[in-house]
Design a protein that fits this description.
alpha/beta; globular; four-stranded antiparallel sheet; six-stranded mixed sheet; single chain; 10 strands
Amino acid sequence: MNCIEVKNLKFGYTNERIINNLNLIIEEGEFSIIQGDNGSGKSTLLKLILGDLTRESGSIKIMGKDIKDYKSYKDIGYVPQVNATNKISFPVTCLELVTLGLYEDFGFIKIPKKRHKKRAKMAIERMGMGEYINRPFNELSGGQQQRIMISRAMVNDPKIIVLDEPTVGIDQKSKEDFFEFLVKLNREKRITIVLVTHEIEFVSRYVGKIYRIVNGEIENVTI
């Protein structure tokens, strides 16, 4: 089954299109990279798939359903880039941050209940970060922050995880640990993983397919 299916997708921020007639199919259980030069449209493609941007034309399907019919994104866990320039600007503990991933389930008053916190705690512990539950998020190292962000993405038990430049600002050993961790998630839980990164030489040993965006299209696929 196709987890993500993109056909003839077009999008531009101005009159000049950044995504032009792009086609992409990512199968269930795939661990793949979307790669390209700066400004090639990698992060833009992620935002279109996540529904943060509206396509100009073409189609995007998630798990066989058109994106316009998606009311909830619980099936997709998103891990944004975390670095010194875009750290969370308000004080929040790791438990509070991961609990916010269950916001849609909070109810009318939008206040987390005991069961939400318990679920968030379990998600953090599954990532091997139990000792950091009450630690302020901004005090963690880059690799630790990425594990907490994955905990937040995983708290809804998604079928797909999308990551945008997850290794920026992370040292070599933490990168290796991080990708081995993603491989384990992919193999043991059959979670489809889509990763945007510039570090193609480093991460290519971990993934199944590499999709390269050139001139707004998928130019080639490396397996």
